[in-house]
Amino acid sequence: MAASLDPYAVRGRFPALRREVDGHPAAYFDGPGGSQSPAEVAAAMAAYLDAGSSNLGGPFATSQEADAVVEAARAAMADFYNAARPEEIVFGQNMTSLTFAMSRALAKTWQPEDQIVLTRLDHDANVTPWVMAAEDRSVDVRWVDFDPDDGCTLDYDGMRNAIGPRTRLVAVTLASNAVGTIVDVRQVVGMARAHGALVYVDAVHFAPHRLIDVQAMDVDFLVASAYKFFGPHTGILYGKYEHLAAVEAYKVRPAPEDPPGKWETGTQSFESLAGVTATVDYLASLGDGDTRREAITDAMARTEHHEDALTRRFLKGIDEVEGIRLYGIHDDRPRTPTFAIAIDGWTPAEASEVLGDLGMFTWAGHYYAVEVMQRLGILDDGGLLRIGFLHYTTDAEVDRLLAALGVLASGEDPRESAEFQPTTLGDLEPYRAYDLGVLPDPRTVGRSQLADGLAEVVAVEGPVTTDRAYSVFVKAGGGMKVTKPVRDDMDWAVELLVEQGRLAVDEFVVSAPDAEDTERQVVLRRPKQPRVHLRELGERDLYKVPLSEVAALVAGLRRNHPEADGEELKRLTLEAYGLKRLTPLASRYLDAAFRLAGV
Predict the structure, then answer these.
(1) Percentage helix, strand, coil, to 5, in the chain?
(2) What is the mean pLDDT of the chain?
(3) Contact at 8 Å (CB) between 9 and 394?
(4) CB neighbours of residue 501 within 10 Å
(5) How far is CA 402 from CA 355, 495, 503, 524, 550, in A?
(6) Which of 272, 486, 511, 521 is most buried, by CB atoms within 10 Å?
């Protein structure tokens, strides 16, 4: 299993993520539509511009610095893609522009009656350039379908049948930007190699989520855009050197005759290339290794581990919501954390606008995956609502999103729900403690009776931590302490209640940046109870207030007191709960709540 990656620590390196909407840190749930750059990237780009710039090849300092920036960026992306040599890396404006240029150049080698193979799963940037090139050269286009009833997975048998002796190129995505399907490109390459066809891979959506290894996949070309994996707006093409050298490029006469320069039309954005290097170095900093490639490999394993946990959390939560249809893989098969959904009673555009007002950034429509939406039969109906998670997405953000989706699916507007209103001190409701009478002694009753009693406690006090719920049960049963045998039995009762659909569980693991100070907490609620309910302290200890509840209060206090530093914000939080003393234990618990709130 991969080592963990702490999204709370990571977020601190993304200045844009400090933005708030109605007192809540904005949650960028459209990772596939774009991402935010860490501070290191912005600093690298600004430093290059601040130092002055020049074109390549001059005998003076600024030109030599530009040469060094390009060389560094090429080496960085060679590590990111695992290219055999830096000269296999080509920079351009974006993936689309690079693909149009490459399609035009490759098409010159095609003859009438040749064929190319495209898929219905691809973004239009890996479709239209090839369709137009095929039309120019009177080349046939063969299409490979996907199965909407099997998680929108690619039809590999159809791919095998589509590729033949006249096939010159197969264009395929590594992962669908619309529905998150991951394609087994190595299998596709094997099919293409049997007939001598080239393989051109769109890795734009895949790049921020999983490790890319062009040598292991043995692809001929692969292209991505740096802004999708936390960098600037620059496209990066990998091509096997033999192809880059052999194929004639459309270029001006003074441009280099050899790759990669022959493919890089005009003057590059050198400040962006400085940002590309910083982006790769940022990703490497999230992992461990003796080389940059080893660190990237470890970082992407950590990212995959974290994102898979978010995916399971989201899919489990969606199962509890009626009125939402998910398109794509809904089981344990590999996928990216990108989800396309339809919500009864709301158009995708309406739902996206509501969520945007709540600080949850999603996308509506077809997101250029025209063939996908057409195949699903919804292209002319507004497409779908797309949600995407990244390595800095937190459990709390997923839970807040699920809560908002649940309200939308019920036909209500979450902007009018108390759960999503800006938080102020006046919003705290009285805490109702369990007062329904004596419960049986948990040491002497069966587990089904334990489950019934625990459900009673949660119905009154939920959302409630397991520590609080168990201690309330023991006290109502005449006991004083939650012993290990009793805790084990109650843990079993929780599992039973969840299986019966009578209880929902929210889990929080909040680590400090050094990962040595970790708060782990399980919160119980009825399925239809809000995930966060802002209440006064009541009979609870501070440490038995759910972290998500404290975090929501902190976010509201931050909105009301933007000038407050961390110490002041902690004291304001204690004051809201009627407490005065900021003990080391209270300070540590509030630190965890601050990280959960993104403050």
Answers:
(1) 45, 15, 35
(2) 90
(3) no
(4) 10
(5) 11, 21, 16, 16, 19
(6) 272
Nearest to 402 by CA among 41, 29, 68, 128: 29
Q: Are strands 504-511 and 89-92 parallel, antiparallel or unpaired?
A: unpaired
Distance CA 135, CA 149 (A): 32
pLDDT at 217: 98
Are the CB atoms for 439 and 481 separated by under 8 Å?
no
Q: How many Cβ atoms from other residues are within 10 Å of residue 494's Cβ? A: 21
CA 117 to chain centre: 30
Percent of all residues in the chain with a pLDDT value above 90, rounded to a whole number? 72
Q: CB neighbours (10 Å) of residue 566?
A: 12
Nearest to 20 by CA among 351, 574, 413, 422: 422
Structure token digits, residue 454: 């625990």
Rounded to whole angstroms, how far apart are CA atoms 569 and 565? 6
Question: pLDDT-derived band of residue 8, with 50, 70 and 90 as boundaries?
Answer: low
Tens of pLDDT, residues 552-573: 888 888 877 878 888 999 999 9
The alpha carbon of residue 277 and the mean position of all alpha carbons in its chain are separated, in whole angstroms, by 22
3-state secondary structure of 82: coil
Using DSSP bridges, classify how beta strands 153-154 and 167-173 pair: parallel, antiparallel or unpaired. unpaired
Nearest to 589 by CA among 508, 539, 518, 514: 518
Two tokens at 38? 């860490």
How is residue 25 written in tokens?
């840190």
By the 8 A CB rule, do 369 and 356 touch? no
Residue 355 three-state SS: helix
User: Rounded to 5 degrees, what are φ and ψ at 167?
Assistant: -75, 130
Residue 302 has pLDDT above 60, yes or no: yes
Q: Is the pLDDT of residue 29 over 80?
A: no
Which tokens go with 532? 């966060």
Other Cβ atoms within 10 Å of 18 Cβ, number: 12
The Cβ of residue 85 has, within 10 Å, a number of other Cβ atoms equal to 11
Cite the beta strand spans of 145-185 per DSSP E. 146-147, 153-154, 167-173
Both tokens assigned to 18: 């400090």
Distance of alpha carbon 81 from alpha carbon 220, whole angstroms: 13
Answer whether 555's CB lies under 8 Å from 24's CB. Answer: yes
Spatial CA neighbour of 271 closest among 229, 242, 314, 234? 234
